[in-house]
Design brief:
23 strands; alpha/beta; 6-stranded mixed sheet; 7-stranded mixed sheet
Length: about 500
């Protein structure tokens, strides 16, 4: 966007049409430049109420739609995202500042895959049945019928807004639910664009709604406190998740939470050096460290600690920060100035505690256009322990601490010494040890000699402060439906 380009308007989408509630608006900021790229209409309480009413009306129609027809809508949505692929890429880049190559290869590509995957999953889903032997040679047949959960509030974060939105909306719609989406105030664009796609794909009016705004005293609070919401799926910080849980607790509504992480990587001395360095570079610095699965703690066996540290520093320094529209750019900005200040606070604290900065730690100078953005250098440090706050608290930036260990048992203890439990990676040529250590991690997901490799049918989620419940494949279907057991005496 040039300095002369006027901001576009982003509106709420309720009951099948775009609406402007009143003059309540806020700015959407391009994180790469710090400039306003859009003006967003903020939903007030009456509009959120209208969205929930619309969902309840649409639910009767959509939940009664045969599975075959639902899957056709999902597959058409995937086709339409592909047809407007670059439009989705542009909206994602404008909101997040991430490199255009990352938005193409990860965010928008996964949105397409999410709709197709859950169309396949619901089409193939079966139901449990049991034959029960009774006295006198009689029998009973028990079988479960799964019904939609109902009206689902979908609250998504700013780091992977389209990917995580479709990761929730696709299975919710596949199961016959209707949804109200509250995207992050930082990244409103692609949720709004998806409304156009789903309407064109044939989704009934009111089955997908978007309300824009903030948390407390805004759309997020209005949505989660609405008595007609049947369930909430949320991805974001652990603190916000706790507040959402407290809000819905009096009404005993089910929740699915994928929250923060302080993920560990464990590198053994027999690990393939180049493969490990490539994997760690991705797991520490992907999306500028703003992925819930990113590694912030790297535990390295002492005999190879220097090799890993030197190699990772070299790769960190080779990352290219720059305009997200340039193909050569590998690393974008942080999402906002406020988030950069948070990350910088941890960098300053680490140095106060005696950390040795191996690389990074500064705000780069990228020229007049980009210097207004929320940039930070990829950063690595040593010299801290698990007792230090920067090693215990989630930072959510391109930052990692490198810590040596001597034995396998010590590595497991160090990796598990956290209140979080989302993901871990293990790097070793000994696959027996890889299996053993991965299974010993107190996490929802553990990788061996890779990172971020996903089969969308497998369970996804965390333990402890990292979340509640699982998504993916049949796990998503279980959350978005309620089973009714039918017992027939034969």
């Amino acid at each position: 966007m040039t300095a002369q380009t006027p901001p576009r308007w982003i509106r709420n989408f309720v009951d099948g049409r775009f609406v402007d509630p009143d003059d309540r608006c806020f700015d959407a900021i391009d994180p790469a430049t710090g400039r306003v790229h859009a003006r967003v209409h903020e939903a007030d309480a009456p509009l959120v109420g209208r969205a929930v009413t619309a969902v309840r009306k649409a639910l009767d129609t959509w939940s009664a739609t045969p599975v075959r027809e639902r899957t056709e809508v999902l597959r058409r949505a995937a086709d339409l995202i592909e047809a407007r692929f670059e439009e989705f890429v542009a909206a994602e880049v404008a909101d997040t500042g991430k490199p255009v190559t990352l938005a193409r290869d990860l965010d928008v590509a996964r949105a397409v895959a999410n709709f197709r995957t859950f169309a396949d999953v619901i089409a193939a889903a079966g139901q449990e049945s049991f034959l029960t032997d009774l006295p006198g040679g009689r029998r009973a047949l028990n079988y479960a019928v799964r019904k939609p959960l109902g009206v689902v509030a979908v609250i998504v974060p700013w780091n992977l807004p389209l990917l995580l939105l479709t990761w929730k909306v696709a299975p919710a719609l596949a199961c016959g639910n209707a949804v109200v989406v509250k995207p992050s105030e930082e990244t409103p664009g692609t949720a709004t664009l998806l409304a156009e796609v789903l309407a064109e794909a044939g989704l009934p009016a009111g089955a997908y709604n978007v309300v824009h705004g903030f948390g407390g005293g805004s759309a997020g609070e209005y949505l989660t406190t609405d008595p007609w919401i049947d369930g909430v799926t949320f991805t974001g910080s652990s603190a916000t998740g706790a507040r959402v849980m407290k809000t819905v607790a009096p009404r005993v509504r089910p929740v699915s939470f994928e929250l923060g992480g302080k993920n560990a990587a464990v590198v053994f001395e027999d690990a393939d050096l180049e493969e490990t360095l490539d994997g760690l570079t991705r797991s520490v610095f992907a999306n500028t460290g703003q992925v819930c699965l990113c590694t912030e703690r790297v535990y390295v066996q002492r005999s190879v600690f220097a090799d890993i540290a030197d190699g990772l520093v070299e790769r960190a320094r080779s990352l290219r920060l720059g305009s997200p529209l340039e193909a050569a750019t590998t690393t974008g900005p942080l999402i906002s100035q406020a988030h950069r200040e948070k990350v910088r606070g941890y960098l300053d604290l680490a140095e106060e505690l005696g950390a040795k900065v191996l690389t990074g730690g500064n705000t780069p100078s990228l020229g007049a256009v980009l210097d207004g953005g929320s940039w930070i250098e990829p950063t690595l440090w040593t010299g801290l322990t698990n007792c230090d706050r920067p090693v215990r608290e989630e930072i959510f930036g391109p930052v990692a601490a490198l810590i040596p260990f001597d034995t396998e048992a010590e590595a497991i203890d160090l990796a598990n010494d956290t209140e979080y439990g989302l993901a871990a990676s293990v790097w070793t040529r000994d696959l027996r040890r890889g299996h053993r250590v991965a299974q010993a991690m107190n996490v929802g997901m553990a990788w061996v000699n890779t990172w971020f490799l996903r089969d969308l049918r497998s369970p996804f989620g965390g333990v402890g402060l990292s979340g509640l419940g699982r998504e993916g494949g049949a796990s998503s279907l279980h959350f978005y439906t309620e089973p009714t057991n039918v017992c027939v005496q034969l």
